[in-house]
Design a protein that fits this description.
The structure is a homodimer of 435-residue chains.
Chain A: H1 15-22, H2 24-37, E1 43-50, E2 55-61, H3 75-89, E3 95-100, H4 107-122, E4 126-131, E5 140-143, E6 149-154, E7 156-158, E8 161-163, E9 171-175, E10 193-194, H5 206-224, E11 235-238, H6 249-270, E12 278-282, E13 291-294, H7 305-312, E14 323-327, E15 333-335, E16 338-347, E17 350-359, E18 374-377, H8 396-434
Helix pairs in contact in A: 1-8, 5-8
Amino acid sequence: MVPHLTTSLTGPLHEIERLVLAQRAGIEGWFRAQWQEHVVPFYTSVDLRNSGFKLAPVDTNLFPGGFNNLNPEFLPLCVHAAMSALQRICPDTSRFLLVPENHTRNLHYLQNVAVLRRILEGAGFTVRIGSLIPDLAGPVEVETAAGEKLTLEPLQRRGNRVGVEGFDPCAVLLNNDLSGGIPAVLRGIEQPVVPPLVAGWSTRRKSHHFHVYDRVAEGFAKLIGIDPWVVNPAFSQCGKVNFTEKEGEDCLAANVEFVLGEIREKYAQYGITEPPFCIVKADAGTYGMGIMTVKSVDDVRNLNRKTRNKMSVIKEGQPVHEVIIQEGVYTFESVDGAVAEPVIYMVDQFVVGGFYRVHTERGIDENLNSPGAQYAPLAFETNCHTPDCGGKPGDPPNRFYTYGVIARLANLAAAVEVEELVERESALEVRAANA
Amino acid sequence: MVPHLTTSLTGPLHEIERLVLAQRAGIEGWFRAQWQEHVVPFYTSVDLRNSGFKLAPVDTNLFPGGFNNLNPEFLPLCVHAAMSALQRICPDTSRFLLVPENHTRNLHYLQNVAVLRRILEGAGFTVRIGSLIPDLAGPVEVETAAGEKLTLEPLQRRGNRVGVEGFDPCAVLLNNDLSGGIPAVLRGIEQPVVPPLVAGWSTRRKSHHFHVYDRVAEGFAKLIGIDPWVVNPAFSQCGKVNFTEKEGEDCLAANVEFVLGEIREKYAQYGITEPPFCIVKADAGTYGMGIMTVKSVDDVRNLNRKTRNKMSVIKEGQPVHEVIIQEGVYTFESVDGAVAEPVIYMVDQFVVGGFYRVHTERGIDENLNSPGAQYAPLAFETNCHTPDCGGKPGDPPNRFYTYGVIARLANLAAAVEVEELVERESALEVRAANA
C-alpha cells in the first residue's frame, strides 16, 4: 500500500494496472515473504516511466537526494518508516551520523539534507552531520535553499569508529553516493553504515541492478500473470568504452542493435507504432550525466566531439568506461504541458512519497534528469476515503498504487543487489586474508 | 514521533511539555528499548486529559471503535503501521478475519468497521467480517453511516480453526470488547487472536491497567526528571460493590476519601486552587457507562435511585461489582467553546491520529464519553516543515508530540497488562490440566 497520491494521468488504466489492482492481497503477501528473506534498503528512490503500454523503473538511486521535493505532508510517513528501519539498526542508542555529498553550493541539495535530518530527529535520534569535504578544519555553518542552518563537521576516526567532535554515533547514514571512491575514513569501521559502502558508485553498476531486476520482474510477472517485459526495460552493456579515444564503438553499435531489435519485436507483438529507442548511460553514473538517447546504430557511430565529451566524464570527473544500453520507455505523462516522469521515494519497505520530475525543454523520449528539471511534489489524494473508491480503475489513487508496486520491485532488486555486493566483498576480503 | 496535529490549546507549554520536547531523543530511545521487551498491542486508543498542570491518560481502549473519526488523511499512516504489525502476525498468508461488535444499529460504529477493513485491505489483506451475532443464519449486508456496504457473516468453527464460509483466515482481529464474556466459538483456536481473548472486558480490569501504568509512569518520570503524578492519575478500587443493594458503600466512601486526600496533597504542593474530584467507574466497563463525578464522600453516601441504577449496569447488561475510583483530571481544552478531551489512536507502536471528544452539555470535570459527544478529527499540522519550527515551545505540533508520548506510555502499560493477563491464563490452564 502506498499513500494515495495524485497522478498527472487521467486516462483509462492499462492492463497492467488493472491486474495489479485486482491482485493486491496476493502482491502484498508476496512482498511480505520477500522482505523476510532480504534486508530492505534504508531508503531508495526509483525513476519510473509510464508509456501506457509499459510501466517500468529506469533508475534506482540508493542515495536519494530529493527529500526536499516531497510533499511536506509526507513527513509523518517518512518518520514512521524511519522508526521501523532504525529500530533494527540502532536499537540501543540514539545518535546518528549523516554523511552528505560535498557540494555545499547546491542549496536545494542542502535542503534535502535538512529534511533527512528532520526525519531522523523525528524518529527520535540526535543527528550530527559529518562531512567528507577534504581539509575541513572545523565546523562550518551553511544555509539551505529554505534558509535552514546546517552545521557540517569534519569526520573523525578513532580506532575502528567514526564520529564528529564529542559525538560517537551508533550508525552512519550515507547520503553520499561515493562516486569518487570509498573514503579511507569510513573503511573498516565497526558501526553499521547504511547503505553499505559497496553500494556506492565506485563498486555499484546499473547493469548489475537490472540483471537482478530481471529475476524480480520474472517472479512478479509470473505471480500476476503478465509478460515481464511490460514492467522491465530490455538492456545490454559494454565494458570497455572510451568515448574520447573512440574505443568500444563496435561493442556499443552491436548492443544498441541488439536492444533495438528486442524492442522492435515486442512493439510488433503488441502493435505499438512508436519508434523504438534506447538510452545509453554510464554504468556507474548518476546525476543524469553521461546519458544519450539513441534511435539507430548510426546515432552511436561517428559521434561528434561535443557528444563524446559529454559522454566521457560524469560526476566528480570520473571517466566513463562502462555503459548500459537500456530500452527507452516513452513517458506519456505531463504536468502543465511539460514532459514528466514520476519519482517514487521509499524508506524501509514503505512508499513515503514522490514527485514528478518535469522538464519543459525535453521530449517524451529523453532523459529528464538534466539541468532545467523541475519538481512537482505528488500530493495526497484523499478522495479514496469515500465508498465509491473500492478499486474503480482509472482513479488516480489506484494508478499510484501501481506505481508504488513497480517502485517496490526495484527496491527489492536493490536489496538483492546490495546483498550480492556485500557477499562479493566478503569473499574478496577472505581471499586477500588468505593470500 | 507523531504526526504533527493541531491542538485546541494555544497557551504556553506547561513544564512537562517543555521537558518532553527537550529530551525527545532520550524518550524515543527509551521507547525503542521497551518495545524490544514487550509485544506492542495491534491497536489502542487512549483518552487523555490536559489540565495544564497535569497531562494524563484516563482510559485505555484495546478495541478502539472510532477509526471513522480520524482525519482521512491519516489513512496512509494507519496502513503503514498495520503493515508493520501484520508482518509479525501473518507473515505467510493474506487472509484476515475481523470480528466486530454486534450492535448493527450504530451506523457510526459500522463506519469504524469499514475504515478498519480499508486499513487491513490497504496493508494487502483480504478481509471478511465474522459476526458474533447469535442465530445469524447467513451473510447479512448492512450499510454504514457513510453509506458503505458491509457483509457480516456467521462465524464457523472447524476443529481448532475459525473462519467464515469458504474462508480460512491466518488470524482474527477482535474489534469486539467481549463485555458479554469469551464466546465458545473463539476459545482455544489455533489462529492468533489480536488482542488476545483475555484482553476483553470479561477478564480485563481498569485497575490492573493503572497498576501497571504506575510502574511505567514511574520509569518515565525518572527518565525525564519529573514527579510521576504529573502524568499519572491517583486511583483506588473497590471489589465488592452492589449499587442496587447499597452494598460496598463504606468501601467506596473510604477509597473516595483516600483518593481525594492524595489529590489535595498534590494540589497543595503545586499551589493548585481548583477543587479536587474523582471519577468512579466500573472496573470492567466501557462505552462511558457506569461513570460518575464525585467531589466529596457525601456524593457516594445515600445515592439516589436514579444514580444507583445508572451505576449498576453497563454494556450488554453486565452488572457492576467492581469499581475504580480515579483522580479526576480537569480538561482545559475546548473546541468551539465546548469542553473537549483528546483521544489518541495508535496502531502498532505508532501514533496514527486522533480526535477531540467534544461535549456541549458537560463540564470540565465530567466524563465526556456519553450520549451527545461529538468528534472533531485532529488535523495534520504542516507548518512545522519550515525552519522556525525547531522545537519552539507552544507550537501546536510540539504540544501534540507530548500527547503522543503520554498516549504511548499508556500503550506500553497495556502491553505489559496483556502479557500479565496471558501469563495468568496460562498458569490457570496448567493448574486445571493438573487438577
